[in-house]
Design a protein that fits this description.
Layout lengths: L1 E5 H9 L4 E4 L12 E6 L4 E14 L1 H8 L7 H8 L6 E17 H7 L9 E2 L6 H9 L1
Parallel strand pairs: 1-3
Antiparallel strand pairs: 1-6, 2-5, 3-4, 4-5
Length: 140
């Protein structure tokens, strides 16, 4: 699985200050505890590492902020801005087993092995037969 994350938030994941990824759609139960490749969108335009998700919390934005501790963080307002104050479909993906690549794999590099690569807005699956999969595995 590949997940697009804004570069600012990807950096927070790797420095340990972001323990949850907030989304408007949940992951499937079968995707829990599986490696997810992080595509750092915006600034980096590169795959920068992996993480796994142990659980998915769902609820009202305010409830989720309290459950995750983001109600006490200075950047909690960003989640409210994105979801709205009382959105009932706020999902928080609990992140663990974070691994940063020693060298990012750029989109330009991946286009050399698959010119038709399309990156998801939320997430996408990569087939094991896709050369992109082999390239990402070798960076891990």
């Amino acid at each position: 699985m590949v997940m697009s994350i804004m570069s600012y938030y990807a950096r927070q994941i790797f420095d340990g200050t972001k323990g949850f990824e907030f989304r408007k759609s949940p992951l499937k139960e079968g995707d829990l505890n599986k490696e997810i490749y992080i595509y750092s969108a915006k600034d980096d335009k590169a795959f920068v590492g992996t993480f796994k998700v142990s659980e998915v919390l769902c609820g009202n934005t305010k409830e989720i902020l309290k459950q995750t501790g983001y109600d006490k963080r200075d950047d909690g307002w960003e989640i409210v801005k994105y979801f709205g104050e009382n959105n009932s479909k706020c999902y928080a993906l609990k992140i663990y087993d974070v691994k940063k690549f020693s060298k990012p794999v750029t989109l330009a590099e991946l286009r050399k092995v698959n010119a038709n690569i399309r990156l998801p807005q939320y997430f996408a699956y990569i087939n094991e037969s896709d050369p992109v999969y082999a390239k990402l595995c070798s960076a891990n």
